[in-house]
Amino acid sequence: MRQASCEIEVAAAGQGLVEVTGEVARWAHAQEMREGLLTVFCRHTSASLLIQENAASAAREDLERFFARIAPEDSAAYAHDDEGPDDMPAHIRAALTQTQLSIPLAQGRLALGTWQGIYLFEHRRRPHRRTIALHLIGE
What is the mean pLDDT of each run of 10 residues along the chain (139 residues)? Predict the structure, then answer.
């Protein structure tokens, strides 16, 4: 059994989904393992990770609008606003999604479905550089 790990940095221009599938898949492939399990971990409290539709952009746009409705920016609704009006809504959106994904590695490839992509879901309005930790265990 072998292990490998690294961190990747993702530039997010602001709120929305940023696909990282290619970079994650290239790194996993470079580890030269055939079978295993990849953990993808977002090291932030106002961004998250999703496996989501990667063909139809309307699906991602609908998802972003849905989260804006269920965790709106409303300064009267939240006590925590240390970094601005999008601060607490970003934490709520991250709490409702995931900060960690587990993806099987099968025959040297990520076992994602045909239309699945790995996304960083940035919940803050201003640009950020986010760190994602990758850990692969396998053989």
Answer: 98 98 98 98 98 95 96 89 90 97 98 97 97 98
User: For residues 13 and 7, is the Cβ–Cβ distance under 8 A?
Assistant: no
**Structure pTM?**
0.95
Closest among 95, 103, 115 to 48, alpha carbons compared: 95
Distance CA 129, CA 108 (A): 29
Q: Return the residue matching tokens 């900060």.
A: 99
What is the distance between the alpha carbons of residues 139 and 27, in angstroms, rounded to a whole number?
Answer: 15
What residue segments make up the domains of the chain, in order of their start?
A: 2-138
| Strand order across the beta sheet in which 116-122 lies | 16-19, 116-122, 47-53
CATH 3.90.640.10 is right for the domain spanning 2-138: no
Torsions phi, psi for 105 (to 5 deg): -110, 120
Structure tokens at 43: 């090291």
Residues 6+ apart with CB under 8 A from 28: 38, 105, 109, 110, 134, 136
